[in-house]
Design a protein that fits this description.
Elements (H helix, E strand, L loop, with lengths): L15 E3 L3 E4 L6 H15 L12 H17 L3 E7 L5 E11 L4 E8 L8 H17 L3 E7 L3 H9 L3 E11 L5 E10 L5
Parallel strand pairs: 5-6
Antiparallel strand pairs: 1-2, 2-3, 3-4, 4-5, 6-8, 7-8
Helix pairs in contact: 1-2
Length: 194
């Protein structure tokens, strides 16, 4: 397969799409307070897995993060996506396409959901929709999900969404508690899983 290079800044694609229960969209100025509420509610569940969740952010910190994410989205450097619950209009989590390699069209999906919406299938629904978006709109050749080997829920999402466990990088990162952690790498590859 021949890959043609294109300047990602020239790529046009939707900033919003939907799944059954979610509006999945790029961050916008002003989303910080709503995101902050979701993080504050979920900080204890996020802390073991998310390096950024070691301290509770201020609303200003969350807004600054949203604004940086908005700029990165426009520059096509990182495609953070917010998960908005259709019925309530609340931001219930964050996901997106990260660690982007545009020449090979490789993306990594990351995700978290606020505690009050956990274990209801929202992350699985979002990952299915985001993977489809990556294939359809971004011509993805490879999509990865990486998670701490101990994060059983995150690994379960990857498995439910049809990602293949390619391997485990043993003792490759330092966890929030200072211990070494191993990273599971799941993937979907064009011509094999899609």
């Amino acid at each position: 397969m021949t890959v043609h290079a294109v300047d990602p800044i020239l790529l046009e694609f939707p900033e919003q799409f939907e799944s059954e229960r979610l509006v999945i969209r790029a961050p916008q100025w002003g989303d910080g307070a709503a995101l902050n509420e979701a993080v504050r509610e979920s900080i204890e569940q996020l802390r073991p897995w998310m390096p950024w969740a070691q301290t509770i952010p201020s609303i200003e910190d969350s807004e600054a993060g949203i604004r940086r994410s908005r700029l990165e989205f426009l520059e096509r450097k990182d495609l953070r996506l917010l998960l908005e619950h259709k019925e309530s209009g609340r931001i219930i989590g964050s996901s997106g396409l990260h660690r982007i390699d545009w020449p090979s069209r490789k993306f990594e999906i990351g995700y978290w959901v606020r505690t009050s919406f956990a274990q209801q299938g929202f992350v699985t629904e979002a990952v299915h929709a985001i993977a489809s978006f990556a294939v359809r709109e971004l011509q993805a050749n490879r999509i990865e999900i990486r998670c701490d080997e101990r994060n059983v829920r995150s690994a379960g999402v990857a498995e439910r969404c049809g990602f293949t466990l390619e391997g485990i990088l043993r003792s490759d990162k330092v966890a929030h508690d200072g211990t070494l952690r191993s990273t599971m790498i799941f993937s979907k590859v064009r011509g094999v899983e899609f």
